[in-house]
Amino acid sequence: MMATTKQVQAARRNVKKAQVAARRKRTIAHLPRSTRRSLSQQAAASRQRGGMPGHALEDRNREQLYEIAKQKQIAGRSKMGKWDLIKAIRKSS
After folding, report:
1. Alpha carbon 37 to chain centroid distance?
2. CB within 8 A of 66, min separation 6: which ones?
3. What pLDDT digit, counting tens, does each position of 68-93 carry?
4. Contact at 8 Å (CB) between 71 and 60?
5. Crossing angle between the packed helical segments 82-92 and 62-71, to the nearest 10 degrees
6. Left if phi > 0, otherwise alpha if psi is -120 to 50, otherwise beta: which for 66?
């Protein structure tokens, strides 16, 4: 049984839509360069540890560092990025 021209066109449209959706799903490719770099640095640190969990400040995410800064009552922590928080926490210790 052969498909009609309309069915073939509809199938092509559906395939193209699926391809576009699959490309959009690649979220890492759409992240800022600095974020991608940070993720790769964290992955490299994890590989260096042999996959073991790390407790160094560099291995924690910004939210975890923010909580530590909050406990230490570091001023201006809400405006700081990850690396600024790490410096401030180390300075306060």
Report:
1. 10
2. 77, 78, 85
3. 999 999 999 999 999 999 999 999 97
4. no
5. 30
6. alpha
CA distance 45 to 21: 32
CB neighbours (10 Å) of residue 80? 18
Rounded CA-CA distance 93/78 in Å is 19
Which phi and psi angles does 49 have, rounded to 5°? -80, -5
Judge residue 54's burial from the number of C-beta atoms within 10 Å of its C-beta, 0-12 exposed, 13-18 middle, 19 or more buried: middle
**72: which 2 tokens?**
């230490």
Q: How far apart, in whole angstroms, are the C-alpha atoms of residue 73 and residue 17?
A: 50
Distance of alpha carbon 81 from alpha carbon 93, whole angstroms: 18
Could you give the CA distance from residue 83 to residue 52 in angstroms, rounded to a whole number?
22
Look up the pTM and report it. Answer: 0.44
End-to-end Cα spacing for the chain: 76
